[in-house]
TrEMBL record:
A Pfam family annotated for this UniProt entry: DUF4872
Native source organism of the sequence: Roseateles rivi
InterPro entries, alphabetized: BtrH_N, DUF4872
Ranges where the DUF4872 domain occurs: 252-346
Designated name of the protein: DUF4872 domain-containing protein
Location of the Butirosin biosynthesis protein H N-terminal domain: 16-114
Length: 369
């Protein structure tokens, strides 16, 4: 009889919280994959802008859907998904040796108070629960072993703090809502020459023709317009992020720009709003299925990734005491970089659609799949 997945679990840090958690959970079941493959097969790269009224910062997200599950389906892996999972069920899964992929508000995890830029509430973050420890006394609930992709080591976190992070309501519209996932068996190594182009084309379609105007390429244009309005919209001051040094209250515009930088560089994206991770997946597919369109797409997304990273780092250089001139310079730089990366992304998406059409034609003609 094979050992339960939990007993084979090895913690590894990663670029993106969700794909790294899935990579680690799959590895515990015997399927070793690079993180960019898990990420890319989800067909979920994208963009979304969540505007907020008043001085509260607008939110930027670089994926279209939280936990779409497509990568698991393509790998032949079943999954149990449960919303508002009770604590008793979590304990039962862990007692059975399962690894539980848990969605949380990262700001409610105690160790994130010490990680730069990771203190603002965000309910689309993921960690793996891979064990439980008994309480030290009759009054406690014990601890969970938490595998957080942002950390170098496995963590011991009190159960009540994990529960607070799982059930947080501090980050609408992206609250974690107690979602948990347990992977079934049967996952197999993917045929990237067949599955890769289709997954890439799905991302291209959702970016080029999004369901909502604040998503995809139209969402990028909306962000460009919104940035020009921030000096008028994001006025006044806000309480500082928990654990942040500096003034008792932050200027709202500074908070907004720092939040943009954190969303791009620090909130589990691997830097560059997932674009470097996606570039690596495109390059992996191009190795499995040589196509000039795939190589061109990788080049354009790599340029976009550089612009995103520069934007994020520029925003994160601001402090609560930054001058009005520094704020104006940062706003201008964000606008300039958006004007560079938007056409790069559109060109990349068009190349990905072309590569998928050619791959389908080859398959129908009996050539390489």
């Amino acid at each position: 009889m094979s050992r339960p997945a939990q007993s084979r679990y090895q913690h590894r840090a990663g670029a993106n919280c969700e794909s790294a958690c899935l990579r680690n959970a799959l590895a515990a079941q015997g399927l070793a994959l690079e993180e960019e493959v898990v990420f890319g097969l989800d067909g979920n790269i994208g963009f979304a802008l969540f505007e907020r009224e008043g001085p509260e910062p607008d939110l930027v997200v670089g994926r279209q859907t939280i936990f779409p599950g497509q990568a698991l389906r393509l790998l032949g892996c079943s999954v149990q998904a449960q919303q508002r999972t009770p604590l008793s069920r979590l304990r039962q899964w862990l007692a059975q040796g399962e690894v539980v992929v848990a969605r949380v508000d990262l700001a409610a995890l105690p160790h994130h108070a010490t990680l730069e830029g990771a203190s603002a509430p965000f309910g689309g973050y993921f960690v793996n629960l891979c064990g439980q420890l008994p309480p030290l006394n009759s009054d406690g609930e014990g601890e969970f072993l938490v595998s957080d992709p942002a950390c170098a080591e496995l963590l011991r976190v009190p159960v009540d703090q994990v529960q607070q992070a799982r059930l947080s309501s501090a980050c609408p519209p992206i609250n974690p809502n107690g979602w948990c996932y347990v992977l079934g068996g049967g996952a197999q190594a993917p045929a990237l020459e067949r599955l890769g182009p289709a997954a890439l084309a799905q991302s291209a379609r959702e970016m080029l023709r999004p369901a909502l105007k604040q998503q995809g390429c139209s969402g990028l244009l909306q962000l460009q317009r919104r940035v020009a309005q921030w000096p008028e919209l994001k006025r006044g001051t806000l309480p500082p992020p928990p654990g942040s040094p500096g003034l008792p209250r932050w200027p709202a515009l500074t908070w907004q720009l720092r939040a943009l930088g954190s969303a791009i560089e620090l909130w589990g994206t691997g830097g560059g709003l997932f674009r470097p991770l996606w570039t690596r997946f495109i390059e992996r597919v191009a190795q499995a299925l040589p196509d000039p369109a795939l190589n061109a797409a990788a080049t354009h997304i790599a340029r976009s990734a550089q612009a995103w990273q520069h934007m994020g780092q520029t925003c994160l250089s601001l402090t609560p005491s930054s001058s009005a001139e520094a704020l104006r310079h940062t706003l201008n730089e964000v606008q300039r970089l958006l004007s560079l990366l938007i056409p790069e992304e559109r060109l990349a998406l068009e190349h990905l659609a072309q590569a998928d059409v050619r791959a389908r034609r080859q398959h129908l003609a009996g050539g390489p799949p």
